[in-house]
Amino acid sequence: VQPVESGGGLVQPGGSLRLSCAASGFTFSRYPMSWFRQAPGKERELVASISNTGGSPNYAGSVKGRFTISRDNAKNTGSLQMNSLKPEDTAVYYCYIGTTRGQGTQVTVSS
Known about the structure:
The structure is a single chain. Helix content is about 0%, strand content about 45%. It is mainly β. Strands 2, 4, 5, 6, 9, 10 and 11 form a 7-stranded mixed beta sheet that branches. It starts with a strand and ends with a strand.
């Protein structure tokens, strides 16, 4: 059982994307959720996290004010709304439910 990400793609600088994380098979409401990303040649970094109840959102400084993490425990889904995207946001984005990672979804920001 692993999270399933969707919503990645190619977007121009300044654009928006919304990533989703499907959590079927999990008792989703028991676990915190987080989004990490990894760009080519770089280490994986934490983008945002949220508690199991939806409180205490936390963001990397590089995305604060542009990205919003949320979750819907009734629907077993989480999301990452990404606005004002920059080329440096290009990476594979991974959803973690607790310590279980999904396969990732590619986000490419380019003109």
